[in-house]
Batch of 4 targets.
Target 1
Amino acid sequence: MMKKRSQWFSWIGSLAILLSLLAGIPSLAQSATAQTPTAESEATEEFAGTLSDRACPNIGPSGEREGDTYYCGLMTVPENYAEPNGRQIQISYAVLKSKSQSPLTDPMIYLDGGPGGSSLQNIAGRARMWEQVREHRDVIIFDQRGTKYSTRLNCNPSLYGFNYLLETDEEFQDLLEEIESLTDADTMPSTVLQIIYTACSEALEEAGYDLSQYNSANSVKDIFALTNALGYNEVNLVGISYGTRLALTAMRDHPQQIRSVVIDSVYPLEVNGIEWFPMQADESINRIVERCENDRDCNRHYPNFRENLLALSESLAESNPDGLAGLFSLFNLANQLPQVAEYLPIIVEEIVAGGDTPVLTAVIDGDLPTEEAPEDLPGEWDDMLIEAQDLQDTAEAVFLRAAMQEQANRPGAVWMKNIGEAMAPLSREESGYAALALLSILIYYPEPDVEILRGFVTEFLPEENQEELLSELDQLSPSEIQYVYDLINDLSDEVSDNGGGFTDGMYYAVECYEEAPFNNLQVAIDSVDDLNFPALSGLRLSSSEEIATVCSVWPESDADPIETQPVVSDIPTLVIVGDWDTQTPASWGAPLLEHLSNATLVEAPSSGHGVIFYSDCAYDLFLSFLYSPESELNQRCLRGLEPNFVSPSMARAQLAALNGDADQDTNDEPADEETTDDPDAGDDTQPDEDGDDSGGGGGGEERPIGGRLLLP
């Protein structure tokens, strides 16, 4: 008992230091709640927001001009809709205007994943993704409340502060050493998580945030406050991953203005996500193995794929945990680059056999799978296609360089550059403290405030730099002050190694409100032994444990049980799932049809998470549905997504091509490359009845293979 008490007080001591560091910054000494109106009035059913202008936080679509074909804005809404005159928060959004001179009046609204993802982090990428949608209607993207550009629940300062104290503060180091001496090695990471996220949540609450208000139901209210303010009467919702949960919540809470819904990689409300983490990965891995077992040629070449994978994963679990993590990463890679799955049987055979692993090396290095090049396309227009592609690439590169230079020359960017130069001569302790103060501005004063920036300069920067910096600051327009805040947000991601703009504070706010109260971690723990590949898929148990750990210290709030009940709706809905999805398994799709009476299910083989990002076929089905939600979909193109597992002869040919050896003999297996398990599929290389010979193979956004895999 004495041991636990000593550990508890050590934990409190380290937390107190971190909290005092965050709260004791002189320029942030005032309470942010002082800015918040206190008057209350009755809630209204008509959600409304107040709009104001803002410049977009980053580069827009290639060849387009901000304010002409697209624009950004801010919407101010109540943090708590039950108190419309209480604390206000800001939602950043962008409208990608239709290219039609007579656009349809019902826009598409994209709902990002996470929870915690940022749509405005990459406006140009979103515009490319929805380019064909814009031929007929506007597209609206926005950062959900609590995410990067919308009154962010930013835990990055707490993470940065923890690391800063770990490097510079002897008392903090001593306290952590005491904790480590009293804590099992397996539980130490959980203790660190508790310290960081207790500090984060307490800092946010001290700054005036009501963390219980950052949830799906309120994000839905924000959606319709925005569409009402923009003057749209009916909308089409498109959600991917957590965005599907948000779309389903909208169908439940506010169906009146919804024309259609597309939910891709679905995360239903009734699924206990924390309990399912190990099973999610196991289902995807098992589907890949089953596909090979049911494919005549794959099973002939790799008859022991299942047994080899099971034995390999169990062996690595005992002898090489890093190798096991690398093996899991390889299977998980098929979630974002579906073609990788076609190489997994031969890779497992390479590893089990020992010796050289050329296919594995080529996949890790990104040399395989290869992308189809324009010159490989059939037809007499090859040269024109290549030339057009080269011209497009050149034009986009020129535009990107010009746009980045323009951003870098903005007065706000120049001022931030000068801030960095002024901090350079400071000591490690002084610069770390100044950086923490700069990052914490976003927590305590989320709305751009020039006086707070002045306070930062005078409190933390060398006197010889202050006069010039303050003079430059006084010349910045409100738009540039906003851009300074955007750049501080970017800096926050950089110092926390979070380049994707993800907001973990919002992630835990939602998970701890909507999931944790209805989940039992023990269910996830008990499920591991019953998995097809327990050693491999059981690695995902750490995700369940991490959420449970953070939610154990995150402020409690009472969620309505409706947040874990199925949504019943007759709104036209397209449900899309992918076989290789390790995050939202394909099996989560079909049960939705029991409650969505007007839904169509698309099950895409050889596709991972976010099917329409990677599959031309799925994207075409999405466009067809959006055009006419009540019409029956022709899903023939899905046949083109069936996996073509790589045989030994195919692998030799591809490796030879990579090595420049065109004379490599690859004709030792002439028959097996032409077979198919579908007797009704026919020859997919021939045009179908309406002349379409695209086949619907994988496409969408190209994603690079990143990182290295730790394999034996």
Note: The radius of gyration is 27 Å.
Target 2
Amino acid sequence: MKLTKKRLSFYSFLTVIGLLIVYLTTLFLSLLILARPLSASGAKIKLFKAGAVISRPVIYLNRHLPFTAGYLANSVIQVTPLTYDVLSTGRRWQADWLKGNLEIDKGQLDNFVQKYSRWITDIYSLYQTYSAWQYRGLVDRFIPISARLNQDNLNLLLSSRDVVTNLNWLLALNDNTSRTYYFFIQNNLEIRPTGGFLGSYAKLQVQDGVWQISFHDIYEHDGNLPGHVEPPRPIQKAFKHGFWRLRDANWNYDFNQSAKDIAWFLIQSQAEKPDAIIALNYATINKILDIIGPIKLDEYKLVITSDNVYQALHRPVEANFYPGSRYKPRLISQFGRQLLTVIQKADKAQKKKMIKTILEDLNSRQIFIAFFQPQLNQVIKQLGWGGGIGYQPATIIGDYKDYLYLVEANLGANKLNCCLNRQIEDSVDIDDQFIRHQLKIVYSKNKPAEGSYLAYLQLIMPADAFDFHVNQGRAEVDFDLRDNKDKGLTEVGVWVKLSPDQRISRLDISYALPRPAKLNKYQILIQRQPGFDYVYGLKVYANGKLRFDKQTMIDKDYRWQIDL
């Protein structure tokens, strides 16, 4: 058969098509394997080795193709066995923990830490290769891998690597010292800036991977604090006792700063220096009790459930209180130890629900963590679990990032937040020069709330806010105005008061922000105060036209963006 120019072109075309088929087949298999490691499914893990074997001969051909996919395929082959190893080990340990028989020696842990660190590094390198490939859009039509492997997920993996590589430090395995972690229970029925009143805590001490736990009343430290500490002005005005104590140390709305203050009070009162401060609200304890069921304390003839946990632990204390009494510490200690026993005996389904609940509360700002080890604390901040400020000014010309954080402190020495509602209507009017806020804040007491409510409310907003007016009813009231220049914020503080016979109280607060030139996008972050959910309604007008209208329950941080 004569090889004509026309036939030669046809054969060349077939050759190119053949190479493209090999190329796309390799790509499909490679990315399919790559997608597997990001799933914890046991069935999918079994495909790792099979996928690697199937793709090897095709990848060999692909190495010689002038495409980045060759490098991508090689990276997949390298990372697949390590992924299988890491996830299999993790799943095995998880299964042992759920059964209550997890045992890991130091050698196993060190080996896992090394593999995990190398695995994350390889995954990150693989992602960079994938991102650099110019035909990424074509890949996503076949496999939506970008939904699984994106920069946010990679940052999360890098954070997990930092935690795992610090396991020896966390468990005090190498340096012949112990670690001390304080878990503070915050009573959100008496709301405070980081969640609730500090009533009791558990102290966890770890050395060589062995832990001991003890439970304490917050008032144990009052007598050990030397000298006088001047309290924040609102605390002094409300209580008129002239001193600052550990029980009021969570005053700063930035939990990292409150954790430093708590640590200072602990150290000054001769307690062990903390390596971490963890704060969780009674709301989290309630959810855990819903999962594991009631806790029985036979000695005190108490059955503690999610419906009565606060009343069960505190009303008997009040009835049996006298100076020097050890009744409360003993009661709290027995409850804590029995709670841990029931948790350890929980079945697999209950433990999984508890893990899910804790993660949800970390993400919704019901639990805060502050490490005093810089690398770990940075990881916690990246995960959003540090209780810090979420505000960041806009960096793009034509955008404006607004911010509002309402932080309330109940200073009435009561638990009226059990039966108090707060509803906010926020009208934002954007004209040629300004962004003006008109806030209407309505407080209402529901039965069985009795007595007066006294709270100090702080509104945190961008530093360039100005022209403030605060009214209660028809009367203009005084307010505190502070600049927090380090964080680029302005703070407005105002007192909220409801008399015993008053069911509703309303505050009207207005302020303005300068409008940047050529404003294209208005963004606002509403940050949620831990322990306090409330209804928030937002209306945004631009040059007289309604552009946004939304009402929601603020049970987490909310971000909205409005195109103008």
Note: The mean pLDDT is 80.
Target 3
Amino acid sequence: MRIACLGGGPAGLYFAISMKLRDPSHEIAVFERNRAGDTFGWGVVFSDQTVENLAANDPVSAAIIAGEFAHWDDIEVHVRGETLRSSGHGFIGIGRKRLLHILQQRALELGVDLRFEHECDPDLDSWQDYDLVIASDGANSRMRDRYSEHFGVDIQIRPNKFVWLGTAKAFDAFTFAFEKSEAGWIWAHAYKFDEDFSTFIVECSEGTWRGLGFDRMGQDDAIALCERIFASHLDGNALVSNATHLAGPAAWLNFRRILCEHWSHGKLILLGDAAHTAHFSIGSGTKLALEDAIKLAEVLNRPGLDRGRALAEYQAERSVEVLKLQNSARNSTEWFETLDLYLEFEPVQFAYSLLTRSQRISHENLRLRDPLWLGEVESWFWTKSGADPLVRTPPPMFAPFRMREMTLENRIVVSPMATYSAEGGTPGDFHLVHYGARAQGGAGLVFTEMTCVSPTGRITPGCTGMYAAGHVAAWRRIVDFVHANSRARFCLQLGHSGAKGSTRLGWEGMDEPLDHGNWPLIAASDVPWSENNARPRPMTRVEMDEVRDQFVAATLMGVEAGFDMVELHAAHGYLLSSFITPLQNKRDDEYGGSLENRLRFPLEVFRAMRAAWPAERPMSVRISATDWVGDSGVTPGEAVRIAEAFSREGADLIDVSAGQTWAEARPVYGRMFQTPFSDRIRNEARVSTMAVGNIFETDHANSILAAGRADLVALARPHLIDPMWTLRAAALQDYRGVHVPPPYLAGQEQLARNLKRAAESAAILKP
């Protein structure tokens, strides 16, 4: 094949090398607009896995590259006058210019035609003599932009400003240096790539950038100011730019997150940054480009595989890897964009939050890397929780947590989960076993399912209620068992179904209306949940009074039943949620329109409940922090204001869920996918939060807590199938301080021993 690679960066060069290695008869030309020695980056960071991939693909160039790597193990964080250093991270890097030179030489050895100072026409008609055209011309790809309608290009411009600089200081650790200027915080990402030079990326918000005058400075003045700001980290070394051809402000960039729906159009194929980008804070752009090149060359040369299927496999496999890294990169990017949320943290927690920001490094992963440093984090966390660690500091999930006069023994929560197993709203033997088992399983706090305040406030005929004397007695039986046989605290969640009521049991058809025996529905407005559900009646003021009083009556029944805590369910499209979300609330009175108006009735209900509930006992509110429909619904920013409003009325905890408010919503799922909402609410509104949503590992819980993303961690599905999840987690982490019901002590001890032996055996057998 005759192939033109448009762009002579790592992607284009390595693809040409990979093709020639598989079939020397390919005629390949690489066209680059710049001169051979020009480059506008500094250092490139690699992972061990990438090095292995390069060695398997081309041992010759891989050996040369590996022989020139700079190595370092530590990450150093400088903030508020303190320096924190964590080890065991194992970085390797090389100068971008040197990498390009190695790849250029290897390409020439293999017979690739390299053409520098060649402007490439983005019109495919100019490349008729070639069988394939590879767009390896980077994030600003002219080829991709010329045919953007075919590629389905999605470009997101991130708000922070950054500039690539270099310095002769060779940092011996990957360094994050945060400095407070008169205009706000500004920070550097610095790492060496050879024995004599380091990359030095300066980043800040646009407000700080303008406040410092960078938008008006030439490059020399901007660099001089950066040298003054970071003088204590540079040890007298200068900062230099390799983009001196740009006017001062133009050297500062906004990161462009690029994602393409399609990676090929006819004979034009996207490669590397032309198809996708990953934020520099996780250092994976070059890795993705090189691995793209390997895969594309492999499928194009596989016998019996036609081009269409080859390109489909190329995109299918590589897009999965890209999305994984882009998800991590998004987490990392957003951490730096919302830095103000974390600057009030004590330095040790700030550093932990920084290290775990992408979710690629977890709590136990840090223990493997640097157990001493992680021990310091855990000791700090326990001390901050008001407890004194013993000989071995326990994991964060077992630290106590206090709300008003109630102290939880640990931070793990059995999330409220509908069981649809009540008769006439009355909990029975199933509920006694269900809640009793989970309380004995070690969790610090157990929630009831949404318990409804009236017969017509139920979601289904199987929902529990708190509106009749028999309900109080039935719940009292369960509460007494929990208190007598565990150390768990028990929270009553109260709610009203609104437009989502009168439906079948969950396993008979979620949100599907009953075949018969339906009851009338009320909501903020006459907006049905779906076209299959009944249209609710907009609530009158009289009905609002009735519902408010029903919540108060249920709250008082909760006191009588002996619950330790009560939660108001104002999420998931149920009655109170229907007032909060503009998707359901279409009212034109004082209860509709602005967020303040939409919150008016839910706050009124909560205020009345708080007055009825004992002052020494805590209360929480469950909210949907986003409607998953963009700006037309509740946004994460509005969720902060919602949390603040309930906090002012006496809420001690915000139970941060998301969505389920609109049938057409498009949630973005993944591990801990709702935790970022808890993080923002906790650290912007400065309120206690509980994280929930696809949290299922001990690592998840410990990471969330230690990083300050939530104060409690709720697990739903894991507790459905494993009531003893918390006791099992204690055994897994060799923590013996958890309370175990005496009849189960022998089993817990054996489980802990067996898991410890298994871990020790695995460590011995590990290569």
Note: The mean pLDDT is 95.
Target 4
Amino acid sequence: MTHNLVHKVFGRNTSLRTVLIILFVVQICVAVGLTGYISFLNGQKAVNDLAGQLQSEVAARIQQHLRGYLEIPHLINQSHLNAVELNALDINDPVTLGRYFWKQLQDFASVSTLYFGNPQGGIVLAGRQVDGSFAIEETKDFVAGDYYIYATDETGNRTKIIRVAPPFDSRIRPWYKVALEAGKAAWSEVFFIYARENLGIAASLPVYDKNKQMQGVLTTQLVVSQIADFLQSLTIGRSGQAFIVERSGLIVASSTDEKPFISDAENNTPARLNAIDSQIPLIRFAEQHLLQQFGDLYSIKNNQQMSFELNGQRQYLQVSPLQDERGLDWLIVIAVPEADFMERINANTRTTILLSLAALCVAILIGIIISRWIIHPILSLTHAATQFAEGEWHQTLSITRADELGVLADSFNRMVQQLKESFTTLAEKNKEINKLNAELEQRVMERTAALNTKIEELVQTRNELLQSEKMASLGRLVAGFAHEINTPIGVAVGAASTLQEIAQMVTKMMQQEEVDEEELLSVLESVGEAADLTLSNLRRAVRLVSSFKRTAIDQSSDTSRLFNVKETIEDVNNSLHSKFKHTDITITINCLPTIVLYGLPGVLDQVLTNLMMNSLFHGFNDGKLGGQIIINVTFLEENKHLRLEYIDTGKGMEQSTVEKIFEPFFTTRRAHGGTGLGLYICYNLVTSQLHGSIICESQPNKGVRFIIEYSAQTSGVVH
């Protein structure tokens, strides 16, 4: 692949001078490019680390400030509660409460309002006005009703009523409800303060008497704009932004001038601003990325750092949860553009590119000079080599340099001289080689003829061995039949002799003048018994002869016919009965009597005969071991296949033996006369004549299992 690429780039006609110049240029470009790229990656990594550190430090500063800032209201509430519990402050005296709250406002500049609401719906409040003045507000008679706003003097005393507001009930206010539900210090939701046109948040603390009865709620209110002032005082890169949102996405405060609420011009009612609707692109896209990344803001459980694209520029983003046990649950989000950090790196990149271009020009100039210095002697060498290739042996080089090219020229001259001598020797050797080739061809022809003769002899020998094994199998069948038929014939002959003696006895009795009827009946009864015995044994002999006839014809004939599979297997079993009858081996045949096929029953006979004799000799140690032979036959209708499963429970075989079991002449009983052709014949019969498959499975002491499967016809007509 590399060779093809070089060939395509340079071409067959490209000069070496051009190649050298290109190589110089490519090396410089690769070296400078890799250096610049690695430098850029290192700078990028440094930027990522720096951005992450900056965001973490800013987030830590914001969290530290907010935790201190948001702790003050709860400390004030607790201070008020302590005063109530020590009877230093009477919560049932609205005048004293108002002056006390007014005094507290002088000491805590971050607090905008302090108030107390009681279970009757009344409220007493001291608040900081927009113009910097202070006012005390309360409901009439300290119960739910008309709401009065009083101006105050320099000591916190009420001076005059500024205005009367609509009726007020503290019990329905969010700050009262959240304290009542929590039963302890709690934060209200962020809400809009109409008088200040700003957002506020209230810290509430319920007050209980000694009997655990609710006495009211102490509340300290903060203006959220002070948080925004702090965020705006932070330096977050060159153009980074920080903002705080609730889990719902509503903005609490940000480091921008954008207000965290919007006004409805028609209804003149303010509404909280969602970060996704912000006019500040960095805030809006940061919120979109968080929603895409997590689905919703409630899924953010810990600090997360990530990045997103805005107008093709990468932006670094960090989000940190801010939570406390009083119900506060905000997210601090910090977004910093990558461009704030990349300006110096981009300048270095431009410098690197300029230096690379300068190095490239120098490399081209050096390449031209060096290539001319190298190419000149090479051109002389090329010209001499061309002349030499055309048969001009007198060519020599006159290069007197001491470098590698001078050594090459000297070697070339010596090579020319050696080649002259070699060509002369080669011509002589070619004559000898041609003569040897002619002799070798003659020998190869003679050896090939001899080898073909040997192959024909081996094929003939193999066929003779197979035929011999086949005849041996038939011989075992004949021997078994002779032994098996001997018994019923012998019994029939004995019974016939008895009949002859009884007939002679009857003749003598008939020659007597008087015949004893009882004795005659006894003799006739013996005649009947002898006749029955003779008849039954002759019938058995007829069945054996019929079975032998079918088996012998099938094994000696290659003609296809219709045959009953179960009868064929039983015929084989009957023919081998004499081999197994004196052993403890039981033979079980599981085959439906309705399976009738068209094919070669003799092949099936011979395969089963070899398998059963193999089990007797090898699996059951010449019948000395007991066990079972099970033959299961099924006909698979879906693919018209006959499946024969042959199992014996003998001593089994090692895996190494199983792998060689179907190889010709392989046997484990060579010393006992085994030829190693029995299972080889089975394999050939199944694969070549039945066009099926045979596999063997076995383990030591677990018997053997053969599975034979082949396509079978159910009639003599092929559809």
Note: The radius of gyration is 57 Å.
